Amino acid sequence: MNQPSVTESRGAHLRAIEKISLVLGVLLVAVAMAGFALKTQLSLSYGVLLSLLNARAIRFFGDRLAKLQSVGLLVVLFQLKLFFIGALIYLGLKLFSLDGVGLCVGLSILPLAIVVRAVQWGMSAPNSNGEVVSNG
After folding, report:
1. Is the residue at 78 inside a domain?
2. Which residues of 47-80 are buried (b: 16+ CB within 10 A; e: fewer)?
3. Cβ contact 117:20 at 8 Å
4. Residue numbers of the domain that contains 15
5. Distance CA 107, CA 38 (A)
6. 30 Cβ partners below 8 Å, 6+ apart?
7. What is the pLDDT of residues 6-65, one digit of tens each?
8. What is the pLDDT of residues 63-109, one digit of tens each?
9. How many domains does the chain have?
10. Distance (Å, rounded) from C-alpha 80 to C-alpha 75?
11. In the chain, what is the straight-line distance between the N-terminal and C-terminal CA atoms, in Å?
12. Which of 42, 63, 95, 112 is the most exposed place for a label (fewest CB within 10 A)?
């Protein structure tokens, strides 16, 4: 098959997810600026920013640390990243009095980008002619 395996194209998938996150984030912020209240705009923008930082951190750790073959270090750094993002969410809610729904919608950009990339990659699979096809 011409389809690269998942491990061979991990970096390409992470870059594509980061780009899709950026595009979806810009679209969401533009829609929020056009028709939502200021507090909701700030909440959405803050959530999108955290989501983009999360995508960038995943790509950074995925590219650099996966080469080291140190699963323990990778798990510890991902947990520290989650703690840091959780602390930023808490500070945003307490310090800026952000709207929780707007923040959650902004944070949902990364999972949505992952789903978009999965569908995009799945649709690029060769035609199976009724047979079961494995993409990886």
Report:
1. yes
2. bbbbbbebbebbbebbeeeeeeeeeeebeebeee
3. yes
4. 11-120
5. 18
6. none
7. 454 667 888 999 999 999 999 999 999 998 999 999 999 999 999 999 999 988 887 777
8. 777 677 777 887 888 899 999 999 999 999 999 999 999 999 999 99
9. 1
10. 9
11. 10
12. 95
- Beta-sheet strands, E only, within the chain: none
Q: How is residue 11 written in tokens? A: 């970096």
Are the beta carbons of 68 and 30 closer than 8 angstroms?
no
In a domain, 4, yes or no: no
Dig out the tokens for 51 from the structure.
Answer: 């989501």
Upper half-sphere CA count for residue 97 (Cβ side, 13 Å): 2
The CA-based dihedral angle spanning residues 71, 77, 80, 85, taken in that order and rounded to the nearest 10 degrees: -110
Establish if 94 belongs to a structural domain. Answer: yes
Helices (H), 66-98: 71-95
**Tokens for 113?**
């980008």
